[in-house]
Write a structure and sequence with these properties.
Elements (H helix, E strand, L loop, with lengths): L10 H11 L13 E4 L3 H7 L5 H4 L5 E4 L1 H11 L3 H9 L7
Antiparallel strand pairs: 1-2
């Protein structure tokens, strides 16, 4: 499946995420190269949460900066957290994890 463009982070959201993290991995705190990751993945948003609009999936509220190592580990671990992040984007949860 090709990832629909409207679900991708735009340059402004990427800049906001990097500014928020101070250019550090938000998981381990290491400075340097970071990748912007979707907390609620695009695949899950499209297939399991179609009520969540693309602009929410591609927003700063759904972004986290991760180093390459933590990005790989996060992908594997995050599968169980998609319902939580979907609820956050839908406004069902107010607390920050």
């Amino acid at each position: 499946m090709q990832r629909p463009h409207e679900y991708e982070f735009c340059g402004n959201v990427k800049k906001q995420a990097i500014a928020r993290s101070g250019g550090k991995c938000e998981e381990c705190g290491d400075p340097g190269y970071v990748e912007i990751h979707h907390l609620l993945g695009i695949y899950y948003a499209i297939n399991f949460y179609p009520q969540i609009k693309p602009y929410l999936v591609s927003s700063i509220a759904n972004a986290i900066c991760l180093c390459v190592k933590d990005h790989r580990m996060y992908d594997a671990r995050l599968k169980d957290e998609h319902p939580y992040w979907a609820a956050k984007l839908l406004g069902y949860l107010d607390d920050v994890k």
